[in-house]
Write a structure and sequence with these properties.
It is built from eight helices and 19 strands. The chain has two domains: 8-125, Rossmann fold, CATH 3.40.50; 133-305, Tumour Suppressor Smad4, CATH 2.60.200.40. The protein has helices spanning 20-36, 49-59, 71-81, 115-124, 157-166, 174-188, 246-252, 255-258, and strands spanning 8-12, 40-43, 64-69, 82-83, 86-87, 93-98, 127-139, 144-149, 152-156, 192-198, 202-208, 210-214, 218-219, 223-224, 236-241, 267-272, 274-278, 285-287, 293-309. A hairpin with a 3-residue loop joins β10 (192-198) and β11. It has a six-stranded antiparallel beta sheet. It is 27% helix and 35% strand.
Length: 312
């Protein structure tokens, strides 16, 4: 058992995974108390709650935060860790019990979905520092906003897929929900002309379907968009899907899932610490599976800033 002097707080989204997390929470709570000892638990009631609840727990002295939810909840907890000048409690560590529609992040980092295995990791309490991305963007009301992300920010088609997924049912699971939304968006999507700057490597006005700024490898319920990405190399892995015709997009669609996306001729890959994008058109953002706003955006890497408990 972890030392009872260690202060632990659970941040739980009972609505994650179509509400099944709320139904499972009594079992998780009982198992966690048996394995970890006493802890505080904070349950979200609305989108965005996990940010404030995480900060509340950390400022109350929590040394370890356990997130129970999907990628969207995890993103909120990450943002709860971070203040304007960096982590609000640098010595605190984050752990994760994945419960969500997509859970793309755990396809990159070794965190198990099974409750007993996830609890074993929490018990070991060995953390590795991971990078985060910081983005400055415009929210839906046109206001300047700041957000951190742990997995992927993308612009173009990804934001429109998020918008569709989040307003329809996810009852068939992450993969089916995202691929169905992707197919619908593909049939209606108009490519965007974007002014894109990637460090000092690229600065041009280009037509795009999709631009991925990746810390992790996967998005959208299993799309393998950044095969070379790692969460602790101090770099983004940027994938630019250029001006393909619709028949070309459908022809190459399997490569979006089998790791061969970078073999497509109009797809380019870069490494970067800073990415900037703007457009005269409305271009939506995807931030860890949530549609939070639109261009213009500036994305910067924040290396090694968050201690995350994961397997060796």
């Amino acid at each position: 058992m972890l030392s009872r002097q260690k202060k632990i707080a659970f941040i739980v989204n009972p609505n994650a995974a179509m509400g099944s997390t709320g139904k499972e929470w009594p079992q998780i709570r009982s198992f966690a108390r048996e394995r970890l000892g006493p802890f505080e638990a904070y349950l979200t009631t609305a989108q965005g709650d996990a940010i404030g609840l995480t900060r509340q727990a950390l400022l109350a002295g929590a040394e370890q935060i356990v997130c129970v939810g999907g990628d969207g909840t995890f993103n909120e907890v990450v943002n709860g860790f971070m203040g304007g000048e960096g982590p609000i409690r640098p010595e605190a560590v984050l752990s994760y019990i994945p419960r969500g529609t997509g859970c793309d992040f755990i396809k990159t980092v070794p965190i198990p979905k099974e409750l007993d295995k996830a609890m074993d990791l929490i018990l070991k309490s060995r953390a590795r520092p991971i990078d985060l991305g910081q983005l400055s963007y415009r929210d839906h009301h046109g206001r300047p906003s700041l957000r951190y992300f742990h997995n992927i920010t993308s612009l173009g088609m990804g934001g429109e897929v998020d918008e569709r997924v989040n307003r329809t049912t996810k009852a068939f699971g992450g993969f089916v929900s995202f691929i169905w939304a992707t197919l619908i968006v593909l049939l209606n999507y108009k490519t965007k002309r974007v002014r894109l700057k990637i460090d000092d490597t690229l600065e041009q006005n280009i037509i795009i379907w999709h631009v991925v700024v990746a810390n992790g490898k996967y998005q959208g319920g299993g799309m393998f968009v950044a095969p070379d990405a790692t969460v602790d190399d101090g770099l983004f892995h940027v994938t630019v899907v250029g001006d393909l015709s619709l028949p070309e997009v459908f022809w190459h669609l399997p490569k979006l899932y089998n790791g061969k996306l970078l073999e497509v001729g109009k797809v380019s890959a870069f490494e970067a610490r800073k990415v900037e994008a703007d457009s005269d058109q409305r271009v939506l953002l995807d931030v860890d599976g949530e549609q939070l706003g639109e261009l213009p955006v500036v994305v910067e890497i924040v290396p090694g800033v968050l201690p995350l408990i994961m397997a060796d």
